[in-house]
UniProtKB/TrEMBL annotation:
InterPro entries the UniProt entry points to: Aminoacid_DH-like_N_sf (IPR046346), NAD(P)-bd_dom_sf (IPR036291), THF_DH/CycHdrlase (IPR000672), THF_DH/CycHdrlase_cat_dom (IPR020630), THF_DH/CycHdrlase_CS (IPR020867), THF_DH/CycHdrlase_NAD-bd_dom (IPR020631)
Keyword Aminoacyl-tRNA synthetase annotated: no
PROSITE patterns reported for this sequence: THF_DHG_CYH_1 (PS00766), THF_DHG_CYH_2 (PS00767)
HAMAP family tied to this protein: THF_DHG_CYH (MF_01576)
Amino acids binding NADP(+): G164, R165, S166, I234
Taxonomic source organism: Galbibacter pacificus
This protein's UniProt keywords: Amino-acid biosynthesis, Histidine biosynthesis, Hydrolase, Methionine biosynthesis, Multifunctional enzyme, NADP, One-carbon metabolism, Oxidoreductase, Purine biosynthesis
Catalytic reaction equation(s): (6R)-5,10-methylene-5,6,7,8-tetrahydrofolate + NADP(+) = (6R)-5,10-methenyltetrahydrofolate + NADPH; (6R)-5,10-methenyltetrahydrofolate + H2O = (6R)-10-formyltetrahydrofolate + H(+)
Descriptive protein name: Bifunctional protein FolD
């Protein structure tokens, strides 16, 4: 069994990005600038957005954190997005999800300029991804592809089972694993809350990608020997023995599943850090595109 070490690989990617940013600085070019919009005080979202901003500093990007109260109206958020769309200094931005219930998520995602949509959630970018066109690939699926590629995990002709059909992870992952190329060329089954006989399906899988947010859901009895397991789950489970009072737990019963797996991602230290690294990569791409388009 080999651990797919997202922490290590994400650090390598950040180092590669730092080299590119240093070159930009040397040439007197503008460095990439990422903005993140956070509405409300959700603890997990605060942590994620904090890590995204901190990682910008690490690679030499500019970053802006826009914090808005949980009472923000849809119109106020749409106005802020319009401001960010127009701001020539900002290359890309994200609106952290989930949003408070008074705000329509679809309206918000549609309002983001697709050229600045480094999350890849705008329908124009999502459509391009499905059609194999060059675009921003959502950061978590992009990070999983990068991990599979850097560890040279064979995906061609394999049966990939994705558990969970969220717009952020499961759905795009199911599309990407079936695309032509490497990683890809898999036969994909997308499972969800209405799937019957899930164990029958997972026990036939060569690669399993879990993204449902249910701690320790995937058990050893549900997988075959030598399976590749990618665990996207990050649930805060109360734990009085830790200073924070909780521990981050994945969707996979790691202790037992890892005994059967050929490759497996840990939680934490697997997919999570890769998501941030790929968001930075998308922001670098946004900067390069803007420079090519505007000449600065
Ligand atoms: N919430 C959970 N994951 C993500 C993500 O990748 N991007 C945004 N914007 N919100 C999220």
């Amino acid at each position: 069994m080999e651990i797919l070490d997202g922490k290590k690989i994400s650090n390598q990617i950040k180092d590669e990005i730092t080299v590119e940013v240093d070159k930009m600085k040397k040439n007197g070019e503008k460095v990439p600038h990422l903005a993140a919009v956070l509405v409300g005080n959700d603890g997990a979202s605060l942590t994620y957005v904090g890590s995204k901003v901190k990682s910008c500093e690490r690679v030499g990007f500019e970053s802006t954190l826009v914090k808005m109260p949980s009472t923000t109206s849809e119109l106020e958020l749409l106005k802020k997005i319009e401001e960010l769309n127009k701001n020539q200094d900002i290359d890309g931005f994200i609106v952290q999800l989930p949003l408070p219930e008074q705000i329509n998520e679809q309206k918000v995602l549609m309002a983001i300029d697709p050229d600045k949509d480094v999350d890849g959630f705008h329908p124009a970018n999502f459509g391009k991804m499905a059609l194999d066109m060059s675009t921003f690939i959502p950061a978590t699926p992009f990070g999983i592809l990068e991990l599979l590629e850097r560890y040279n995990v064979e995906t061609k002709g394999k049966h990939t089972v994705v558990i969970g059909r969220s717009h952020i992870v499961g759905r795009p992952m199911s599309i990407l694993m079936g695309r032509k190329g490497f990683p890809g060329n898999s036969t994909v089954t997308l499972t969800h809350s209405h799937t019957k006989n899930i164990t029958q399906i997972t026990s036939q899988a060569d690669i399993i990608i879990t993204a449902l947010g249910q701690p320790n859901y995937l058990k050893a009895e549900m997988v075959k020997d030598d399976v590749v397991v990618i665990d996207v789950g990050i649930t805060r489970v109360p734990d009085e023995d830790t200073p924070r009072g909780y521990k981050i737990t994945g969707d996979v019963d790691f202790e037992n599943v890892s005994k059967k797996a050929s490759y497996i991602t840990p939680v934490p230290g697997g997919v999570g850090p890769m998501t941030i690294a790929m968001l930075l990569k998308n922001t670098l791409l946004a900067r390069e595109r803007h420079r090519a388009k505007n000449g600065n």
